[in-house]
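job 3f2a | input accepted
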Amino acid sequence: MSVVYRIQLLTLVTFLLAGSPAMAGDMASDLPASLADRLRAITEVNLVDMDKQARDSIQIARRQLNEVLQAQPVQSDKLAAAYGELGGLYQAHLVFPAAEDCFHNALQLAPDEFRWAYYGAYLADTDGRTRQALERYQHARTLKPGYKALTLRLGNVLLDLNELERAQAEFEQVVNATGLESAALYGLGQIALLQRDYDTAIDAFTQALTYDPAASSIHYPLAQALRATQRNDEAKAQLAMLGDQQPTFRDPQIESLEALKVGSRIHFLQAMKAIKRQDYAAASKAFAEGVDMEPDNVLARISYARTLYLTGDKSGARQALEAALALQPDNSLGLFLLGVLTEEQGDADKAADYYRRAIHNTPDHAGAHFYLANQYYRQGKLRPAVQHYASSIDGEVGYLAAYLPYISTLILSDAPVATLKSVLETATRQFPENPVFQAMQIMLLAASRDTAIQDPEAALTSAQQLNDRFRIPPHQELLALAYAATGNYEQAAAIQEELLSYAQQHMPAEADRVARTLFYYQEGELPPLDDLIDRSALQAPPFSASATLRDYPTARPY
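job 3f2a | predicted structure (558 res):
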C-alpha cells in the first residue's frame, strides 16, 4: 500500500480515533525495553505552528505507530511501515530530526525496504549532509538498481562533492531516460563548464532548455559558457532570461513523499526560505497560496503584504495590510507597517495616527515610537521626539537606529549634561564596535563645563584606545582634545598643527574650524563644547519604507 493511500485512509478514520480513549503514554517516545536497544525514541514535536490539516495527519500517523507498538507480538513489517509513514510526514513538513529517527527505525526493522532507504538518502541530501547522502543513495541502489531517478540524484551529489568523472558516468546513464533528460544534461553541462570545455557545455545547456524551457536557472551557466567563447551578445540575452527554476525530473518515489505536504504551513515555510535568499516574488507567491488555505491567518497576511511591497506591488501590499487589520484591528505590527506605507505616500498626519494606534495597543512598540519620533524631529518638536526615541529604545534594547537621533535631539534640546552622559555610556556599552558613541563620550568627558561630568583622564584613555583601533583625523582631533583637557596643551597643539596641515591639503572646508581649535590650545584653553559638536550635522534620519518593510523584526511571521 502506498504512503499516500495509507495516510489518506488514516485521515478517513480520524473520527474513530478522536472518539477513542486516550492512550496511556506515548510508546513512540518511551520505547519498551525489548526495542530500546536498536530503535530510537521519537520525541514528540511541538506542532503548534502547523495548520490543523498537517497537525492532524501527523497525530493520526503517530497514533497508528503507537497502536502497532502496543500490539503483541510486535510485527516488524507493520512497525517499519508505521515508522516510515510517520517519517514521510515529518520530512514533508520539514521536521527533519524526527524524520531522520523514523527512517532509521524503519530500516532497522526492514533493512531491505527501498522506500525507507531512499527517503533517508533524500533527507540527508535535502539537509545538506552530502557525504552521508552519497553513502545512503549507494545503499538504496543495491536494493533497487534499476531506479533511474536515483542515478540522477547520485550524479548531483557526486557533482556537489566535485567528483566529476564519477558524476559524469552517472549522468550519462540517464541522459536519454524519458523525463530525466534535462536534469542529466544540466549536470553534464556543469561538468563541462568546470572543465572549461565551453562548446560541450553550451551544447548540453541548450539541449537541457529544449527539454525543459521553464528551467530558467540554466540560463546563467549557459551565459557563462557563451561569454567564455566571446559570444557576449548571446550571453546577455541568456542573462535576461535568468530565473531560479531548476530542471524538473520524474521521481515517482519522491513525488509520493511530496504529496504528503498538506495545509498552509508548508507554503509559509517555503515563503520564509525564499525570503532568506531574497527571492521576494517566490515568497509572495508562497504566502498567497498559504493565505488562500488559511484566510484568517493575520500574521501571514502581514508577511504577504511585506513581500508584495518588496516586489514593487505597493497597492497590493496596502490591500493585504488592510485585509489583515479588518480581521484583527488591534494588530500593532499591521498598524505600524500601514503607517509606514501611508507616510511614504505623503500623508504624515494619517501615518502618525496609525503609529499612535500601534502604541496604544502595544505601548513598547519600538518601530512606531521611532517613526513618530522622527516626525517630531523633522517638525522641530524636540521634547516629544526625545520621549519617543527613549520609548523606542526601551521597547527594543539594542535598537541602534534610534540612538543616534536620540542623542542628537538631546543635544539640540539642551538636555541636562548628566542625561546625555548616561545615554552615551549606555550606547557605548551596547555598541562597542561603533566609534561614534565613544567619540561623543570623549568630547563630553573632556570639554564639559560641568565638573561632575568632567573626567579628563578617562577621556585621554578612551581617545588613545580609539586611535589604536582607528587612526584617522577625527580621532586624532579627539586625542588632541583629551590631552588639552588633562592640561597638556603643548601635546594637544602639536597634534592639532599636524591636523591643520592635513586639512589645508585634503579638507580645505574644515581648515578654519581646525585652526580655531588650535588657537585655543595655543592660548592654554579648552574650546567650548558647542564648537566641537557640529549641530548642522544633527539631522533626523532619512525616511526609508523599503528598509523597514524588509528588515523590521517580527516574533512570528505566520
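job 3f2a | Residues 1-24 have pLDDT under 50 and may be disordered.
job 3f2a | closed
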